[in-house]
Design a protein that fits this description.
- About 35% of the residues lie in helices and about 15% in strands.
- It has 13 helices and 18 strands.
- Strand 8 and strand 9 form a beta hairpin.
- Helix 4 runs parallel beside helix 9 and helix 4 (about 110-125) runs parallel beside helix 13 (about 450-470).
- The longest helix is centred in the middle third of the chain and has 26 residues, at about 235-260.
- The two termini are about 35 Å apart.
C-alpha cells in the first residue's frame, strides 16, 4: 500500500488545497551543461515541495489523516501487478509517483518509442503513465514463446536491430543481452533462389556469368537507364540503379504487394534503403552493430519500463482517460489523435498465415517472394532469428506474410507517403505542431518509416529537447 500521507497530500493538491509556489530556488554548484542545470533546478523544486509536504503532514494528527482517507472514493492507490488501472485494465504496474502535487506525464504507446521516453523521463524524476490498448508491451516489436514449440516468435513480423549509432547501440544494451545476428535474406524469383540484397553473387546467378566486381559494374552500367538523371519515383530509381531485368525480377512485384500501389506512385527514397553490392557480401544491412535481444524484444521493453516512476496501463485507450497530464507524448496514429475528422491517412497492415512443422521448413529466417503471381510477400521461419538456441527446437513455426491496406480496426504497421495524400498529411502536421502540451513521436505519430535505432534516437532527442525547454 502506498504511504497514506503521500496519497492524502496529492488528493488535497488535486482539489485545490495546495498550489506549488511559482518560483523556488536552492543553492547549487555551477552546472557543466544545460541539461545538468535543468536537472538541478528540477531537483531543487522537488526538494522544496517535499519540505512543504512534510510541514503540512506534521501538522495533521491521525484523526485528520483518517478523515482525509475516508473521503476518497477509491482509497489509497495500490502498487504491484494486481492493481487495476483506469477503465478497468487488469494488467497494470503501478509505481510510486515522483514529486508532490505534480501532474504526471502521459505517454501513449508501450512500444519502443514510448518505453524509451518513459525511462528517460523517469530517470529525470518525472512520474509517467504509459498506456496501450493492447494486452502486452512492445508494440509491433512484441515477441513471445510459442506454447507448442518453445520457439521465440516475432508476433507482428521479424525485427532485426541494426545501427551505426554507437550511442544507441550502447543504450539498448543497458537493458538486454543483445546477441549477434546477421540477416541473410533469400528470394525465389522465376523458380530460382537468389540472395538479397543484390550483390555480386546475385548478379552472376541471375545472368549466369562469372563476372569480377569491375565487370559486374560495367554490366549494370550498360543495363541501367542512363537517361534518368534524377529519379522521380521508386520505379525510376530502380531502373537507374539496376536496369529493367533485375527490377522486374526482384522489385516490381514485391513492391506492388508490399505497398499496394504502382511503384510509380512511391518516392524514390524508399529504394535507397537497399544497396547494390559488387562483392559477395550478402549481409542485408550495412551497419556495424546488428543483433537481436536474447530474451526477445518484449523483455527489453519491459526492462525499460521497470522504474519506480513509471506506471503501465494495458488494455487502456488514451481517448478514454480523464486524467489531466502535464504533457503528452503521443506515438499513436497521427490522424487518429484528431478523430480522423479531416480524413484518413494511408497505412499498410499485415496478415500472417501460421504453419507448424517438424524439423526445419525452409532452412533460413526469411525468403522473399517477389513474383507477382505469389500472393504473399515473404516466408518467415522464426527459430532462425535465435541461432543460439536452434538445437533446442525439433519443431518450427513459420509465417507467410501478406500485406494489405489498413482499414478500420486493423493494426497500422507503416505509413504510405503518397504524393496524392501530401496535402492531408501537411494539414494534420500543422495541427499537431499547434497542439498544446502534446508531442507527436514514433513511426505512426510522425508518419515516418523509422527503423528501431532511429526510433530510439528520436525518443532520446525529443526527451532532451523537451526537458531543456521545460526548465530553461
Amino acid at each position: 500500500m502506498a504511504d497514506p500521507c503521500s496519497w492524502a497530500f496529492r488528493a488535497l493538491a488535486q482539489n485545490g488545497y495546495y498550489r506549488r509556489p511559482k518560483a523556488m530556488s536552492a543553492p547549487r554548484s555551477r552546472p557543466c551543461d544545460a541539461e545538468e542545470e535543468a536537472r538541478a533546478l528540477l531537483t531543487a523544486r522537488q526538494k522544496a515541495e517535499q519540505a512543504q509536504f512534510e510541514a503540512w503532514r506534521d501538522g495533521l494528527g491521525e484523526d485528520a489523516l483518517r478523515e482525509a482517507m475516508q473521503g476518497s472514493p477509491a482509497g489509497p492507490r495500490m502498487s504491484g501487478s494486481s492493481a487495476s488501472g483506469r477503465n478497468g485494465a487488469n494488467n497494470v504496474r503501478t509505481r510510486t509517483a515522483g514529486g508532490w502535487g505534480m501532474q504526471r506525464i502521459g505517454i501513449v504507446g508501450a512500444g519502443l518509442t514510448g518505453a524509451v521516453l518513459a525511462r528517460e523521463l523517469a530517470e529525470k524524476g518525472y512520474a509517467c503513465l504509459v498506456v496501450d490498448e493492447r494486452d502486452h508491451c512492445g508494440g509491433n516489436c512484441h515477441t513471445r514463446r510459442d506454447p507448442d514449440t518453445g520457439v521465440m516468435v516475432h508476433v507482428y513480423g521479424p525485427h532485426i536491430f541494426h545501427t551505426k549509432d554507437t550511442a544507441v547501440w550502447d543504450y539498448v544494451r543497458r537493458f538486454c543481452d543483445m546477441r549477434p545476428y546477421v540477416n541473410r535474406v533469400k528470394a525465389v524469383s522465376g523458380g530460382q533462389i537468389y540472395s538479397l540484397p543484390i550483390n555480386l553473387h546475385t548478379i552472376n546467378q541471375f545472368f549466369r556469368t562469372a563476372l569480377s566486381p569491375a565487370q559486374a559494374r560495367e554490366l549494370l552500367a550498360q543495363k541501367s537507364r542512363a537517361d534518368i538523371a534524377t529519379p522521380r519515383d521508386f520505379e525510376e530509381q530502380a531502373l537507374k540503379l539496376v536496369g529493367e531485368e533485375l527490377y522486374r525480377a526482384f522489385f516490381e512485384g514485391y513492391t506492388r504487394k508490399q505497398w499496394g500501389v504502382d511503384p510509380t506512385e512511391l518516392p524514390a527514397s524508399i529504394l535507397q534503403r537497399l544497396p547494390v553490392r559488387f562483392t559477395y557480401d550478402d549481409n542485408y544491412y550495412n551497419h556495424p552493430f546488428q543483433g537481436i535481444p536474447k530474451d526477445g524484444y518484449t523483455a527489453l521493453i519491459e526492462a525499460l519500463l521497470d522504474h519506480d516512476h513509471i506506471e503501465v496501463a494495458l488494455e487502456t485507450r488514451f481517448e478514454d482517460l480523464g486524467e489531466a497530464f502535464a504533457h503528452v507524448f503521443y506515438s499513436g496514429p497521427l490522424d487518429r489523435y484528431f478523430g480522423y475528422d479531416s480524413g484518413r491517412l494511408t497505412y499498410r497492415t499485415l496478415d500472417f498465415e501460421t504453419i507448424r512443422a517438424e524439423g526445419d521448413f525452409q532452412g533460413t529466417a526469411v525468403i522473399n517472394a517477389p513474383d507477382r503471381d505469389v500472393p504473399f510477400t515473404r516466408t518467415i521461419e522464426h527459430k532462425f532469428f535465435a541461432p543460439w538456441e536452434l538445437e533446442a527446437h525439433d519443431k518450427t513455426v513459420v509465417y507467410r506474410e501478406y500485406s494489405r491496406a489498413c482499414g478500420e480496426g486493423d493494426i497500422p504497421y507503416y505509413p504510405v507517403r503518397l504524393v496524392a495524400a501530401q496535402a492531408l498529411l501537411e494539414h494534420y502536421e500543422a495541427r499537431a505542431r499547434a497542439e498544446p502540451r502534446v508531442t507527436f513521436v514514433g513511426r505512426l505519430g510522425t508518419y515516418q518509416y523509422l527503423d528501431m535505432d532511429r526510433a530510439i534516437a528520436q525518443a532520446l532527442e525529443v526527451t532532451k529537447t523537451w526537458f531543456l525547454a521545460e526548465y530553461r
